[in-house]
Amino acid sequence: MYPEVSEREQVIRVLKGPQFDRAQHGSLFDRGSADSYYHREPSPHWYPNGTGVKPMIADLTDEERSEYIAGYEWNERFGDKKDWG
Prior knowledge:
mainly alpha, about 45% helix
């Protein structure tokens, strides 16, 4: 039997690293969606210790950049935008 999707995702997170944990504040997906939310241009990065806590990691692999862009594009399509008014 194949494991449940949630079990597979947990295994992938462990094998790839915390930057791919979409539930983690500061992850690649989280940072991409936040940049979209705040109307910022895409700038792939992540924070291993949580958003705003140094270090900020910007030297990314292609796979990491893709995960950031997935978060950005998800928010562009389905998410919300900060209302500055």
